[in-house]
Amino acid sequence: MDMIFFDNIDKLGRIVLTSVMVYVLIVLVTKVSGKRSTSQLNNFDWIVTVMIGSLGASTILLKDVPFIEGVSSILVLYLLQFLVTKYASVSPQFSNFILSEPRIVFYQGQFLPDAMRSERLTRQEIECAMRSQGINSFDDVEAVVFESDAKLTIIPKPTDDTHGKENNISQTIKPLM
Questions:
Q1: pTM confidence score
Q2: pLDDT tens digit string along 77-109?
Q3: CB under 8 Å to 77, separation ≥6 — which residues?
Q4: At the N or C end, where does the chain have fewer CB atoms within 10 A?
């Protein structure tokens, strides 16, 4: 109970210094690794980000984890993320293995209950995505796609002359059907 607010000045100094060094490291490596590290995260990127945060916190707070060991583990994760995403960009099979497929959860005025249940989505979440895009009517929506980054994409109905023709399916959702 005697160490609730303060243990000793040496420990505090180590934590402050290590925090600054880990912060600078993560900012620099994130900058070098590019937009992928801070963009809308898919499951794979999210897991790596959480692991890097955990390693950073461990390096800062645990005196049994020397700075060089913490830095090494963080750099290895960034390197692995780079290699995996680089390989996924050239190998569709590998990309399909590590990333979840987009899925249509609403199509031509109908919620798709099996797809929603499988993705654990509620009607309210889909309606929220529609409202955030300024869509007030289900009739204005061709489809809603639950993307691999867990974002809901709203595809509006076409407004040109081909709207009334059958089999006019958006090119971006045709591969998902």
A1: 0.67
A2: 999 988 988 898 899 999 888 878 889 999 999
A3: 48, 51, 52, 55
A4: N
Q: What is the DSSP string of 31-75?
A: HHH-GGGTSS--HHHHHHHHHHHHHHHHHHH-TTS-HHHHHHHHH
Q: Which residue has the tokens 């998902």?
A: 176
Q: Which long-range contacts (CB under 8 A, 24 or more apart) does 130-133 make?
A: 130/154
3-class SS at 141?
A: strand
CA triple 83-44-112, angle to 5 deg: 135
Q: Cα torsion for 129, 131, 132, 133, to the nearest 10°?
A: 90
Decide if 91 contacts 55 (C-beta within 8 A). Answer: no
Residue 125: CB atoms within 10 A of its CB come to 15
> Which residues does 133 contact at the CB level (< 8 Å), separation at least 6?
154
How would you label 146-155 residue by residue, b for 16+ Cβ within 10 Å and e otherwise? Answer: bebbeebbbb
User: For residue 80, which amino acid is it?
Assistant: L
Q: What percent of the chain has pLDDT over 70?
A: 86
Query: Using an 8 Å Cβ cutoff, are 51 and 77 in contact?
Result: yes
Note the residue count of the chain: 177
Mean confidence (pLDDT) of the chain: 85
